[in-house]
Amino acid sequence: MAISAPRSRGWSTLSVVLHWAIVVLIVVQFINHEWMVDLWRATRRGAEVDATTQTAGWAHVVAGSLVLLAALLRLWDRFAHGRPPYPAEEPTWSLWLARITHALIYAILILMPIAGLIAWFGMIGEAGEIHEFMWTPLLVLIGLHVIGALAQQFWFRTGVLKRIFVPGTV
Ligand code: HEM
Ligand code: HEM
After folding, report:
1. Tens-place pLDDT, residues 95-120
2. Residue among 97, 164, 165 to mutate when testing ligand 2 (max atoms within 8 A of CB)
3. Does the pLDDT value for residue 2 go beyond 50?
4. How does the average pLDDT of the chain come out, rounded?
5. Within 10 A of 141 (CB to CB), how many other CB atoms are there?
6. CA 165–ligand 1 middle distance (angstroms)
7. Ligand 2 pocket residue status of 58, Cβ below 6 Å
8. Which ligand is nearest to the CA of 57?
9. Which residue from 168, 145, 128, 129 is spatially nearest to 94, judged by alpha carbons?
10. Where are the transmembrane segments (predicted)?
11. Is a pLDDT exceeding 70 seen at residue 4?
12. Most exposed: 8, 26, 98, 116, by fewest CB within 10 Å?
């Protein structure tokens, strides 16, 4: 099943910039999530937190919301303009693995911040639990995705890695 029409050009500049912006934002979330948990627990108890926890916690809210915006914008670009074709020489099984991994990554990049926003602004504990639950699958999928990208480069020897850095590369 083709998710969208393939195009002969590579990724758009917007898609490339958003890909790496999302990577940076996920690293930010990786670094600051403990502060967010402290801020969340203290706020729910009505307790005070220090300035570092306050700032890092709000950075989590901002960076996480930006992930949501970036993922939606990237998906829009992908559906509006298509994506570069998957390499023809790639075996069917790895093609499908890549497609499923990408779909699940997009799903989490959208659902996780939504659950976080509902938890934080609605002070709803269950949404916080759902938010937390998605973290490990996201890390596993990212791990799989990076292994896949490196396998493309060094095993299948396709130009896929280059095209996520250089817009327009097929
Ligand atoms: C894709 C973007 C995001 C990622 C990767 C992310 C990641 C995380 C992680 C790893 C935790 C710690 C879970 C734990 O160990 O308890 C966490 C907690 C939390 N995050 Fe996010 N977050 C994102 C977006 C957001 C957004 C937009 C908000 C909105 C305010 C938010 C609010 C929260 C809250 C309230 C908690 C505490 C929940 C709890 O401990 O039950 N997050 N986040
Ligand atoms: C937070 C980490 C990352 C996330 C969430 C992420 C997510 C994604 C997503 C959603 C796509 C788009 C697939 C599509 O629309 O069809 C993609 C493409 C791609 N990513 Fe990542 N990525 C991450 C890190 C990396 C890293 C570190 C590398 C390189 C080692 C990488 C290499 C690639 C490549 C090569 C593509 C293009 C695949 C193609 O053209 O067929 N990604 N990534």
Report:
1. 999 999 999 999 999 999 999 999 99
2. 164
3. no
4. 93
5. 19
6. 28
7. no
8. 1
9. 145
10. 12-31, 57-76, 103-123, 135-156
11. no
12. 8
